[in-house]
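We were asked to recover a plausible sequence for a given structure. The inputs and outputs are reproduced exactly as logged, with field labels preserved.

PROBLEM: sequence recovery
POSITIONS: 495
GIVEN STRUCTURE:
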């Protein structure tokens, strides 16, 4: 998925145009942070010296916070108790930009509160106060009315965030899904419990591994088992797709036709609280602005890797997703750098799929806009672009002892990080003729500063039925002139 970085970036840049309605259990998340320096004299337990206390909306409240953090319009419909925590939830939601909330206050109902106690960024204890009894019939009717009103404005995506606290009963879920289907609205479910058939008709459900295993009655210890359990749910519960969140193992997107496994992207994990909410939010907004399921899941996986590196039920911003995308692309760039023997196998597999393979080559020392233009034109001529890169020894032979400026590995990694480049091969000869003979590209690309008769390997490519393409040269750019300018301004010094 990250091979098409520009498409992913394009979706991220559209996220602020999303508009999502979310219905579900909202709660108050409280965090008490401090230091532990002693044990209690009353019992062998640590004493937390509290330095700070923060509160934020949790559950469905955290889903809409994540939606709003993307710049998208978030609308929450939920139920709280007529108590101090309920009013705190209301105030916290009202303070959020891009977010509107329709909270129904029920008498004699407790607002769910989750209190977490942390020291050195680690949780010591969580204390919950909650009620799980169903909401009243009048409350359910009010929820239905509010959903009809919101969906009539825009048929985008409806998120049902089910935490099992009584807001989303089975009958209400079925009614809301029916309303969504009648309006052409996609439905995403963050499920709870063991009976996923109440979500029949949903476009996507996002269980964690434990929920998937419980609902399917099947093991979920490996990729194949996750796929089997997910397809059991799809077939028996009547949902279209499952996105299973798998903690350190990443995520698995499963339909009846295919399965995609996404590796976890987190560098450090400090707190997984609310990570599932972030996933649901990103997927919902991405689908709303035109992404397909794979793209939405890829972005959600990037976002999840960001949010678990934060304390508390945190949110992720578009800038962080973009940074994560670029970082991940660079991390995976080394997979595009290949030895000639390995490259032959890759190209053979591409050809078996009917893909057209192109080849270009150069030193690519201090990559500049002229290089980017050539590579972009080259990629337009083929399905897979292979770049032959002169080794350091080869560059010194061609350009002199002071070149290259960057090492062959540095140049290879920079090239491999580009979306237009599918494979990089470092060669040691003065010319790439041996590489061309081995790979037998369908098209050979060079700059228009060459004549067709002077293109190395052009005669060979033509002989086996390929073609030679001369790309337009972007004037005013060259590595040599850049180096000369830097040296003339004393930016570069030789020892």
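RECOVERED SEQUENCE:
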């Amino acid at each position: 998925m990250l091979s098409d970085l520009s498409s992913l970036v394009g979706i991220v840049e559209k996220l602020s145009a999303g508009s999502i309605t979310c219905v579900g259990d909202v709660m108050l998340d409280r965090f008490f942070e401090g230091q532990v320096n002693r044990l209690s004299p009353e019992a062998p337990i640590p004493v937390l010296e509290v330095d700070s206390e923060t509160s934020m909306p949790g559950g469905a409240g955290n889903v809409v916070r994540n939606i709003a953090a993307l710049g998208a319009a978030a609308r929450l419909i939920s139920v709280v108790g007529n108590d101090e925590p309920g009013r705190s939830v209301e105030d916290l939601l009202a303070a959020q930009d891009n977010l509107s909330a329709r909270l129904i206050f029920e008498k004699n109902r407790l607002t769910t509160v989750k209190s977490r106690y942390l020291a050195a960024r680690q949780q010591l204890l969580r204390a919950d106060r909650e009620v799980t009894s169903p909401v009243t019939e009048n409350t359910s009717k009010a929820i239905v009315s509010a959903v009809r009103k919101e969906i009539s404005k825009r048929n985008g995506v409806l998120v049902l965030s089910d935490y099992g606290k009584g807001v989303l009963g089975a009958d209400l879920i079925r009614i809301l899904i029916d309303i969504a289907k009648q309006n052409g609205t996609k439905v995403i479910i963050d499920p709870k419990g063991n009976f996923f058939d109440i979500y029949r008709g949903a476009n996507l459900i996002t269980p964690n591994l434990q929920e998937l295993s419980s609902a399917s009655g099947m093991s979920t210890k490996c990729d194949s088992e996750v796929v089997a359990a997910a397809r059991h749910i799809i077939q028996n519960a009547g949902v279209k797709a499952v996105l299973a969140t798998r903690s350190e193992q990443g995520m698995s997107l499963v339909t009846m036709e295919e399965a995609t496994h996404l590796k976890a992207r987190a560098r450090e994990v400090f707190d997984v609280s609310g990570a599932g909410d972030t996933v649901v939010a990103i997927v919902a907004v991405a689908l709303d602005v035109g992404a397909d399921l794979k793209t939405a899941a890829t972005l959600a996986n990037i976002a999840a890797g960001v949010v678990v590196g934060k304390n508390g039920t945190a949110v992720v911003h578009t800038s962080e997703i973009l940074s994560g995308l670029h970082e991940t692309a660079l991390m995976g760039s080394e997979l595009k750098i290949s030895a000639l023997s390995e490259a032959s196998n890759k190209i053979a597999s591409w050809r078996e799929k009917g893909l057209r393979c192109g080849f270009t080559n150069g030193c690519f020392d201090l990559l500049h806009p002229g290089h980017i233009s050539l590579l972009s034109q080259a990629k337009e001529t083929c399905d897979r672009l292979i770049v032959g890169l002169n080794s350091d020894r080869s560059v010194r032979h061609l350009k002199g002892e002071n070149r290259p400026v960057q090492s062959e590995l540095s140049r290879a990694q920079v090239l491999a990080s580009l979306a237009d480049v599918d494979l990089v091969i470092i060669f040691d000869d003065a010319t790439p003729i041996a590489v061309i003979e081995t790979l037998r590209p369908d098209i050979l690309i060079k700059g228009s500063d060459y004549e067709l008769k002077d293109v190395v390997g052009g005669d060979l490519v033509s002989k086996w039925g390929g073609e030679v393409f001369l790309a337009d040269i972007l004037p005013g750019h060259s590595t040599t002139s850049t180096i000369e300018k830097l040296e003339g301004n004393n930016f570069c010094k030789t020892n």
